[in-house]
């Protein structure tokens, strides 16, 4: 009886909240979701743990009408039953490819992914890699829709020229322009040349 309730709950969540197409392949669990209003095609590959709302090996692929691509994968994910658009992820890898730009790679221990607007907040041991630039931090909030990213908490930026330590980096994803600053105006950004 309990197992039947679990299967029904999983089916209900995916059928009504993720708007699954009828062509779901049970052996691969290749679930396709349409966002026609934003012209974005999402693909999800999952293995579902039948004991709770835990999803193993989740992968989202999004491509907007401008050609920007966003891929996010996690070892483990959990549906947020209070807000069905939020997916809590663990052991996360992401790849962001903006038009006419090299890929941005992100890894973190945790992330909250919004399935509706694709905003993602990466937390704990975040590493961002773009070309020869590396940023370590504890929180990275990215909005592909708004072309904006915010890096905060113990920020260490490194490239071949040196190292920079700051509280916050704000990045325009289109222009790649950044603002680097400290929250406390009495403190200064630390720059160490190699």
Features:
194 residues, mainly beta, lipopolysaccharide transport protein A fold, 13-stranded antiparallel sheet, 1 helix, 13 strands, disordered N terminus
Walkthrough of the structure:
With 194 residues, the protein is mainly beta. 8% of the residues lie in helices and 57% in strands. The chain has a single domain, classed as Lipopolysaccharide (LPS) transport protein A like domain (lipopolysaccharide transport protein A fold, Sandwich), CATH 2.60.450. Strands 1, 2, 3, 4, 5, 6, 7, 8, 9, 10, 11, 12 and 13 form a 13-stranded antiparallel beta sheet that branches.
Mass-distribution shape: globular
CATH class: Mainly Beta
Question: What is the helix fraction of residues, given as a range?
Answer: under 10%
Number of strands: 13
Say what the CATH topology is. Answer: lipopolysaccharide transport protein A fold
CATH level-four homologous superfamily name: Lipopolysaccharide (LPS) transport protein A like domain
Which band does the percent of strand residues land in?
Answer: over 45%
Order of helices and strands: HEEEEEEEEEEEEE
State the distance separating the first and last CA atoms: 65 Å
Radius of gyration: 19 Å
